[in-house]
Amino acid sequence: MHYRIGVIKGDGIGPEIVNEAIRVLDKVAEIYQHEFTYTELLMGGCSIDAYGVPLTEETIQACRESDAVLMGSIGGNTTTSPWYQLPPELRPEAGLLKLRKSLNLFANLRPCVLYPELRGACTLREEISRNGFDMLIMRELTGGLYFGERKTEPVDGVMTAVDTLRYNENEIRRIAVKAFEVAMKRKKKVTSVDKANVLDSSRLWRKIVTETAKDYPEVTLEHALVDSTAMQIVKNPAQFDVMVTENMFGDILSDEAAMVTGSLGMLPSASLNETKFGLYEPSGGSAPDIAGKNIANPIAAILSAAMLLRYSLDLQTEADAVEKAVQKVLQENYRTADIMSENCQQVSCSEMGSLIAERI
Ligand code: IPM
Ligand code: MN
After folding, report:
1. pLDDT digits over 113-155, tens only?
2. How many domains is the chain partitioned into structurally?
3. Read out DSSP for 97-152?
4. Is residue 338 part of a domain?
5. pLDDT in tens, 45-55
6. Considering the domain boundaries, does residue 194 fall inside one?
7. What backbone torsions phi and psi does residue 245 show, to the nearest 5 degrees?
8. Catalytic annotation, residues
9. d(CA 277, CA 3)
10. Per the domain annotation, does 118 fall within a domain?
11. By percentage, how much of the chain surpasses pLDDT 90?
12. Which of 97, 146, 170, 190 has the maximum number of C-beta atoms within 10 A of its C-beta?
């Protein structure tokens, strides 16, 4: 089969990790006889440098014409990069937010798995990490604080900034449905995370999630407050299966959960709408401090490519093959610097990509 894949390498370590994901996809194409055509697109800082804006209409259109988009990461050092001297709507992150909104990618799936081989890299004590964990954060991605009205202006002579956290019931219901649907294919437990002891938006969230749960009697629903959840993730991560939460809570909790798996460099993500189309990107950032050194961990990008095969192209066998190849390389004790531990062999970003591709 022939598939069109948009490729946004982006900034920082983005290009180097995406190159490795493409190396793996090319191997998949060769072994399973598919044809992937890649269209390289600019977004983020590199688009600012080329066109003066972080996202062009042409890039959005090209994404629409693709079966799926594979992305690296965008943005730079927020204190030193000239991109952050620009007005907020022209900065790299604004491009990503606009792309998510334009393509209606409201559901962001962030699987956090502690591989048995990486227990040593887990930041938690052995008695916690030995239980392992496998959770999926379902982050709402096109509403909430990141998309509400915002402004900074003097009020009675005092400079004042406002951000708005807004959700309507339809936005909550559609992400809740996604969470229950995926829970049905997993351990049938949903933890809905909110701040219902303070926020109106959270009280509506809780009400709608509870209503939605009635259609999924086999799934156990639990409500939890976001502050307490942050604590539980480091205390007992094995208790979670699917966690569904609003945009900002999900942004924060997914970095925390990712780190608990050993490294942000291990975590893929899929951003989906109501169609088969998806945008696939590592959960971590552009890591400008290590960019261009060939030491970044490409596994999150490679696992994002596996999610792309699974969710947008319906190629389950191929997705399994990529995930198994990653596991194999870890079993053989190859590690990039971020997950390095005793008695392992440290390899570069490109070596890791080749090792994984060879095992497909
Ligand atoms: C992420 C990133 C983005 C977000 C930034 C770059 C806008 O942190 O994908 O988690 O906050 O969603
Ligand atoms: Mn984030």
Report:
1. 998 888 888 889 999 888 889 999 999 999 999 999 999 999 9
2. 2
3. HHHHHHTT--EEEEEEE--GGGGGG-SS-HHHHTT--EEEEEEE-SSGGGTS-EEE
4. yes
5. 999 999 999 99
6. yes
7. -160, 165
8. 146, 195, 227, 251, 255
9. 12
10. no
11. 90
12. 190
Q: 284 CA distance to ligand 2 centroid (A)?
A: 6
Alpha-carbon distance 307 to 34, whole Å? Answer: 16
CB distance 105 to ligand 1 below 6 Å: no
Instruction: Name the token pair of 299.
Output: 């596994």
Q: Is the pLDDT of residue 329 over 90?
A: yes
Query: Residue range 306-317: average pLDDT?
Result: 97
How far apart are the C-alpha atoms of 117 and 345, rounded to whole Å? 13
Q: Is the dihedral of CA 295, 315, 270, 102 positive or negative?
A: positive
* pLDDT tens digits, 232-274: 999 999 999 999 999 999 999 999 998 888 888 899 999 999 9
Contact by Cβ (8 Å): 5, 66: yes
Whole-number Cα distances in Å, 304 to 195, 243, 276, 296: 30, 19, 15, 15
What the block records as the tokens of 145 is: 């604080």
pTM above the 0.85 mark?
yes
Whether 11 lines ligand 1, by a CB cut-off of 6 Å, is no
Residue with tokens 């977004």: 43
Nearest CA to ligand 1 atom 12: 251
CB 122 within 8 A of CB 129: yes
Mutate to test the pocket of ligand 1, among 251, 271, 281 (most ligand atoms within 8 A of CB): 251
Q: Residue 201 C-alpha to ligand 2 middle, in angstroms?
A: 21
Shared domain check, 252 and 144: yes
Residues sharing a CB contact under 8 Å with residue 85, sequence separation 6 or more, in sequence order:
none
pLDDT at residue number 259: 84
Q: Whose CA is nearest to atom 10 of ligand 1?
A: 251
Q: Has residue 100 got a pLDDT over 90?
A: yes
CATH of the domain at 6: 3.40.718.10
